[in-house]
Write a structure and sequence with these properties.
Layout (H helix, E strand, L loop, with lengths): L6 H65 L9 E8 L2 E3 L6 H10 L2 H15 L3 H14 L3 H17 L3 H12 L13 H4 L1 H6 L4 H13 L6 H14 L2 H31 L7 E3 L4 E8 L2 E10 H8 L7 E3 L5 E2 L8 E3 L6 H69 L5 H33 L7 E4 H18 L3 E6 L5 E4 L1 H17 L6 E9 L2 E8 L22 H4 L7 H11 L3 E7 L3 E9 L5
Parallel strand pairs: 10-12
Antiparallel strand pairs: 1-2, 1-5, 3-4, 4-5, 6-8, 7-8, 9-11, 12-13, 13-15, 14-15
The structure holds adenosine-5'-diphosphate.
Adenosine-5'-diphosphate binds next to helix 16 and helix 18.
């Protein structure tokens, strides 16, 4: 069979639909890509702006801290400040390196008379003469020039007294030292009172006061030296005060980090000595370190600020800004070498919805185009099929007209030429002529009715009609041709089927079409049954043959106009493809239905169902 659409046309059709679709997809992809790039650019700009703002805010805050420090003394209790040092001839001097206490102590203890006595006492003590050491100690107390040195000497004396077995007196001396003010320190910056605590704790004395002292020394405003903090931590461990111990560990970590920074400062601080304010980041947890001039003093101040505390105070963590000296984020600019910041950038919901809109529009346009293409394709196929069927129809009609005409002409001629024909043969010839005329009539009726139906001009004359009579008339009309071709038509009618409003001729035409189909498609079989019965409120007219049958997939299509089942047997049978179309139209006009049950090779049953209650 020839394909309905030739390959070239099919290709053109596909190209016509698919090309715009592809162009559309390509354009949309391009637009989406541009959108994405634009969004990326916007985010980069936004991040840049935020970073610049953050850097400015941070700088303003830090510079204000510098100004505050220049006017007021710095307390070690300020959580923000890790240390404040002085840059003296390129060397970093830290607050615990030097203070008045340490300086005084060094000077006082260096005096000739005192140092002589102290050496004497220590010698006696180690040589096993604690008694003489006690003597030297008492003398030294008398000449001690300052309370700090006096306390220091008392510690030596207490130790010698203990060795000499004078425990009570020894404890009394320790008590005196313990009561000395906490800012009396030795040359390592260690408060002298601290030295007196172990012997007192040994005897379970002054526990509460010792804890008070430890607390005051840990949280005080003074900058304790690393040595003082180590000693304090040992004491706190003995006192079992975990909160103080944690605090001290933090402070010790700070001191150690500061000591390491002191070594690195030679490398780091020159970078800070610019005209622009610069804060270098250092250590872990990180500090920001900078320089600031001191009022009327040549040596600049070195300030280290705790970054964690600073971000807390500025509420940056709440704003989801993360500052760090390593890892993620972007550099915060020249004022903060080594510092990186990660700022949250808002998602542009507008861009999101724009993208969604483009994708939605694309999907819509594509599906509409493809669907329209499909509909067009279906219509074109249908039109082509119809056109083909029509051209076949013309050939079939011509062929069908020709057969009876040839027969009529042949028998008429034979009668005219042979005048001696006997009466019996004449009647036979005339019968054939009549039968062929009937067939011609039916064919012309079918074609004319079809033309009327197509133009919407077909009308039915409804009147009370007995279905029994119609069925019997149809059987009678087909009696002769059936007998001629050797068919046996068995007719059964149920007399109880009442009259219905119907167009008698039309219903008979429908039955005749079914009967002539049954003959045409009977193959070798010669048995046809026609019966009328009643089923509930309907009259059923059945035409049953045992012929070639109809494949299942064709059974719905045979009622289409011009449709004929394509098979080698059918090819040589005359037909227009209109018989069933007309029959269906007629029965539907009567409010009824026509259906088929068939199995190839076994035969077909066509059933007309006309409602008995039908109002015409
Ligand atoms: P036609 O003029 O071709 O008979 P119809 O509309 O009457 O047109 O029938 C349409 C097609 O249905 C036929 O071409 C035939 O293939 C099939 N058909 C109709 N009746 C029968 C039947 N009784 N047995 C087998 N096939 C049938």
């Amino acid at each position: 069979m020839r394909p309905l659409l030739p390959k070239r046309e099919l290709l053109l059709f596909l190209v016509a639909i698919l090309t715009p679709c592809l162009v559309l997809v390509a354009l949309s992809v391009r637009i989406l890509e541009q959108e994405r790039q634009l969004e990326q650019k916007r985010r980069a700009e936004e991040r840049h702006r935020q970073l610049a703002g953050l850097s400015q805010e941070l700088l303003a805050r830090l510079e204000r801290t510098k100004v505050d420090l220049a006017f007021s003394p710095v307390s070690a209790a300020d959580e923000l400040i890790a240390f404040v040092g002085i840059l003296r001839s390129g060397q970093l001097v830290l607050p615990w390196d030097e203070n008045a206490g340490i300086r005084n102590f060094r000077q006082a203890i260096g005096r000739a008379r005192l140092s002589g006595l102290l050496r004497q006492a220590e010698r006696d003590e180690t040589n096993g003469s604690p008694g003489r050491a006690v003597e030297a100690g008492r003398e030294a107390i008398r000449v001690a020039p300052s309370p700090a040195v006096q306390a220091y000497v008392r510690l030596l004396l207490a130790r010698a007294l203990r060795k000499a077995g004078q425990h009570q007196e020894s404890l009394r001396q320790y008590e005196l030292v313990f009561q000395s003010p906490p800012d009396l320190v030795d040359e390592y910056g260690i408060p002298l009172a601290l030295y007196a605590t172990p012997p007192l704790l040994e005897r379970n004395l002054r526990k509460v006061e010792i804890l008070q002292l430890a607390r005051a020394l840990t949280g005080g405003r003074g900058w304790r030296s690393p040595a003082a903090l180590y000693m304090l931590r040992d004491l706190v461990r003995k006192l079992a005060a975990p909160d103080l111990e944690t605090k001290l560990s933090g402070l010790i970590h700070d001191r150690e980090q500061a000591e390491v920074f002191r070594q690195d400062s030679v490398r780091l601080l020159p970078a800070v000595q610019t005209l622009e304010p610069v804060w270098v980041s250092y250590g872990n947890p990180p500090w920001l370190v900078s320089l600031t001039p001191r009022r009327q003093l040549p040596e600049p101040m070195v300030i280290a600020v705790r970054l964690g505390e600073l971000t807390d105070r500025m509420g940056l963590s709440k704003a989801q800004v993360r500052l760090a000296t390593n890892g993620s984020g972007e550099p915060l600019g020249e004022s903060f070498p080594g510092l990186r910041a990660a700022v949250p950038v808002r998602n542009d919901s507008g861009a999101d919805s724009r993208q969604k809109l483009i994708i939605f529009a694309l999907a819509l346009v594509l599906s509409v185009t493809l669907f329209a293409g499909y509909l067009l394709w279906r219509d074109v196929r249908r039109e082509l099929r119809l056109a083909e069927a029509r051209s076949q129809f013309v050939a079939s009609v011509s062929h069908e007209l020709k057969t009876p005409l040839t027969a009529i002409r042949m028998f008429a001629e034979s009668m005219r030429m042979d005048e001696d024909l006997d009466r019996h043969t004449q009647v036979g010839h005339l019968d054939t002529i009549l039968q062929e005329t009937d067939r011609l009539n039916r064919l012309v009726d079918n074609v004319l009715d079809f033309a009327r139906i197509e133009q919407g001009r077909k009308t039915y004359r409804m009147q009370a009609t007995s279905l029994v009579e119609v069925v019997e008339a149809a059987a009678k009309a087909m009696d002769y041709p059936m007998r001629e071709s050797g068919f046996r038509l068995s007719v059964t009618t149920d007399g109880s089927v009442p009259a219905v409003p119907a167009d008698r001729d039309a219903v008979q035409q429908a039955i005749l079409n079914l009967l002539s189909n049954a003959m045409k498609y009977s193959g070798e079989s010669r048995e046809i049954a026609l019966d009328l019965s009643r089923e509930n409120d309907a009259g059923l007219i059945r035409v049953v043959d045992q012929g070639v049958g109809i494949p299942r997939e064709e059974q719905t299509r045979i009622f289409e106009r011009f449709y004929r089942v394509q098979s080698p047997e059918n090819e040589c049978l005359p037909g227009t493809g209109l018989g069933l179309t007309l029959a269906e139209h007629i029965i539907m006009a009567h409010g009824g239905t026509i259906s088929v049950e068939s199995e190839p090779g076994k035969g077909s049953t066509f059933t007309i169902r006309i409602p008995l209650e039908h109002e015409a």
